[in-house]
Amino acid sequence: MKFRNGLALFMQNPFFKVMSDIIFSLSNSKVKELIKLRESARRRREQNHFVIEGYPDLKCIFEAGRKVEEIFFCWDLIRKAKLENEFEEFEKTGVLFTELSKEAFIKASYRKNSDGFISVAHSWPLLLENSIGEKTQICIVLDEIEKPGNLGAIIRTAEAFGVKSILLSDAVIDCFNPNVIRSSRGLMSGVNIGMGSKEEILDFLQNKKFMLVGTSGGAQNSYWEQEITSKMAFVFGSEKNGLGKFWLDQLNCTVNIPMKGNADSLNLHASVACILAESNRRERN
Known about the structure:
It is a single chain. The protein is of the alpha/beta class. It has helices at 9-12, 29-39, 41-47, 55-63, 75-80, 84-91, 102-108, 148-160, 178-184, 198-207, 245-250, 268-284; strands at 3-4, 7-8, 49-53, 68-73, 96-99, 117-122, 138-143, 165-169, 192-196, 211-215, 232-236, 253-255. The strands form 3 sheets. The chain has a 6-stranded parallel beta sheet, sandwiched between helices. Strand 1 (3-4) and strand 2 (7-8) form a beta hairpin. The N and C termini lie far apart (63 Å).
């Protein structure tokens, strides 16, 4: 019988099944691997795995049908977060569970106030051919995006507005970075993301007969005035430089986002949110 904090396990959690021993060592190989997967894009590519922390994000990954390899948990933190019943539901999935002591869990964690769940899941290929379906009417193109938090927030906002296709042109970040997963709240698992060069994405969209609309502070028309037709790709430039010459030369039109204040530009995520909110409003009217 295992003991935790001086109390018998069955007294604290009667629905527990027999599990492997608790990992206490901070130098345990599994704890070290969690840290490597968290910190290293190269390690994530080599192992074809990524980490997810937190119950809501893990739930989204499961609901999207993605493969979860192993769930690491800390019972003290799960109990503090009052997620005992949720733990039981995950237990029914048949995924391997490994228990960590609070110290080992905190060592592996990348959140300040974790709820006691860290998981390892299989990554999946981000192919252009899988990013747009036959019924896709709106998609987003992000050129040379650099900040994981921005990408995650954009994914979450796009999903909220019903846009499930995001194309990354010459991306310089790893889509399975923990900050992408966290900022998207795990919703990236249900959004179709494709990656490619500028040229590959342009050819792909042209073959699919998409109209290309870019955002630019120098555009004459606002996005309020732009007619929104079927099959439109909204193209956004990088956080640092905005849209470059390649895309500006290929766009069917550009639009601006009207502003009253002194700011001359918006954060990339804010710009995407403005455009998608207007598109969503028109679709509902």
